Amino acid sequence: MAYYWFKAFHLIGVVVWFAGLFYLVRLFVYHAEAEQESEPARTILTKQYEIMEKRLYGIITTPGMIVTVVMAIGLISTEPEILKSSWLHIKLTFVLLLIAYHYFCQRIMKKLAAGECQWTGQQFRALNEAPTILLVLIVLLAVFKNNLPLDLTTWLVAGLVITMVASIQLYAKKRRKDREKLAQIEQKPEFAASVSE
């Protein structure tokens, strides 16, 4: 029974951890874009995002990571022979990359709070794709283990993931261009005159 308890809470930890990571970097996008606002909106928004980032990281994301790792150790303790499996070594490598990403986000959070981060909203959107890729790789290894299929279906799934990532980036770029066009229109004297009439 211990195996099933460890597995259940491991999966819960994974869901919480990834939810936190996805939302945290989304907050970084808004935080970076708030820096472009005029006062007093800039100060109000950046302070609010700082509070949200700190709470999300400390109350949800980090505990999710800890539960994930502790329950994984529990799972391995129930069947230690699994440590000889090559698929697990690869999976653990991806998990270590994810943990590094977790702490990299903490570093960015501190830089944003200090006003020292030079990243743009667009760069944060791209950064937000990293945990998605790691999630796909980790889940595929956990499900297929040493029998990871490298046939047409696998390549179609990989293509679908890449298409989704590219679509999100293109949509963000289109939104940014639309905002820039709108800002240019609002700055034209004819627009100001028509609004005042």
Ordered list of secondary-structure elements with their pairings:
Elements: H1 2-34, H2 41-78, H3 86-114, H4 121-127, H5 130-144, H6 152-187, H7 189-196
Helix pairs in contact: 1-2, 1-3, 1-4, 2-3, 3-5
The end-to-end distance, rounded to whole angstroms, is 75 Å
Question: Regions with pLDDT < 50 over 5+ consecutive residues?
Answer: none
Total domains, how many? Answer: 1
- The total strand number stands at 0
Q: What is the tally of helical segments? A: 7
Strand content bin: under 5%
What is the element string, with H for helices and E for strands? Answer: HHHHHHH
Q: In angstroms, what is the radius of gyration?
A: 21 Å
Average of the residue pLDDT scores: 88
What percent of the residues sit in helical stretches (DSSP H or I)?
over 70%
Q: What does the largest sheet look like? A: none
Shape: flat
Name the structural class: mainly alpha
